[in-house]
Structure formats: C-alpha cells, structure tokens
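Example 3.2
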Amino acid sequence: MATRAKALRLAAVLITCVLTASCGLFGSSSNGGNADVERNVIRIGVLPVVDVAPLRIALTEKLFEKAGLQVNLVTQPSEAEAIKQLDTTLDLTWATHVSLFRAVAEGTELQLQGEAYQAGPNSMALVTSATSDYDDPGKKSQPTIAVNSETDIGALTTRAVLDTAAVEKQKIKFKPMAFADMEAALTAGQVDAAFMIEPFITKAQRKIGAKIVTDTARGPTLDFPMSGYASSKKFAEANPKTLKVFRDVLREAQQRAQANKLAVQDSLTGYADVDAPTAALVSVGTFPLSLNPIRLQRVADMMDTEDVLSGRLDVQQLLPPGTTN
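Structure, written as tokens:
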C-alpha cells in the first residue's frame, strides 16, 4: 500500500509539472503558442517600403507563428486605400502617422498599435535629376515638387525644410504622383525635385543618377516619426489580447531589425523590387520599440501648425488602454 501511495503521489507531481509546462506553452509570451487570444489570424496592409522590413523578418523567423498568430501581409495600392479597408479586408495597416492622424481628424476611429519607423539620414529626401542645377534647397523660390500626396508626410516635411531655407511655403507647387512615377517625371523635367523615401531614393540614384538636394529629416524634422501600424477602434476593442500579442512580437521584430540593418537591407530584395546591390546601399533609419505619445504628438502638432489638421489632435487618446510609452 505504501508503495502504491508513493506511486500515486509521484504521478500527481508529474501531472502538475506537465500542466505547468502547458501553461507556459500557451501563455502570452512571444516565445510560445498562444491559445488565449480572440483570433489567431490577422491581415495587415503594407506597402513596399523599408518601414515594414521588421514584419518581413518576423515572418521569416516565424516569430508570429511561435506566438500563436498567423499574419498575412497584404500589399496595398496606397495608404489611404489601406485605411479604408480596415474592418473589411484588413485588420491592421501600416501607414505614415500623417495619413493616420488625418484619417482620425476626418472621422475614422483608429487605435495605434505600434510605431514602425523613424527617419534617419537620407531615409527621406528631396532628389533631383542628374542634369539639374537644383543643388541647394533655397536656390529656387517657386519649386515644383513631386510628392505621393499633397496631404501626407512628403508635403509636410518639405514645407518645413524649405521654410528654413527661406522658401515661402505658399510658393511651393506640389505635384502628386506615385513614387514609381517620380523617376520619369524628374528625367522629363516635369518637376524640379521629388520627395522620396527609401528604397526609392537609392533606386533613383542608381537608375537615373538622381542627386539629393536636401535630406528632409533635418532641423525641425530631425529624427521625424514617419510611420506606424493601426487598427480600427472597433477591432481593437473586440481583440485586445490578439493585439497585445501583435505588439509584443512587433517589438521583438523591431529590436532584431535595429540590431541588424544588414538583415533589413537583405529583406528588401524579397518585396521591394530591388536587387541586392541596390538594397546594400539603402539608408536605414530607426525602428522604435514602443508607442511614445510625446514623440507622436510632435507629428500631430506639426500638422496643426501647417494647417493639415483643423485643430490639435491628442495622440494619447489613440493609444491602447494602459499604454504610456
């Protein structure tokens, strides 16, 4: 009997250990699976830009899979279209903070889920053609500038930077077009310069000999917070645990990208239509590890100052509950 009792006690200990290990497997850590989420599949809208490289790295290294999430990246034609697709074909989307904040000001209820990218040297810039004499931001008093949108980060930061070069903002003529069309516009002389981000800057330099007129991450836009991820407020309220896991994995992916910029450059060949030699020359900025309301408020306040918004936007109200940094 004593032997049997001892065996039963041993079995109980073993069962407890197994259950404890199982709890570890299904907890909220990004190191294991996660059964305690509202949904296991999320669809994220992206564009072919450096900003989203950490997501690509996370998929390659199966970080989402290990956390119990299946993430599908869906390439979008534009940020505006991606934001419109939230709650229909997309659960989250990447976009510039300028686009996200403008959407909020126009009535779209969003919740920020992570910062994607912060500008570094020449990660966004005004570029011109190889034969242009536009070699100083203050050289032209009425420049025609190609931008992806008159109300996005390109126009906002261009006005700020040219203002420091004594160019009157109201005399700048913006010509909206897709990044992919800017090389041809520069070559044809249709614009004096184009606002570009990476990898489009490096592609233009290698393909048409484009020159940088000025880095647009300087002075008032130094280290400018460029982009992030957002969901609808409705989706966020219905799926807080799922989004918490997403943010945890995103943080790990951002850390890996920040620590290994070569991996970022290498990842571009898989989704950004660049070859390895071009990818190796791409300028890489900073991948923030958290939602920082002070940093993001800087974008909203500049938008208010430049009359992109009709009033001041309180960014803190767009963060997940309990998120302070």
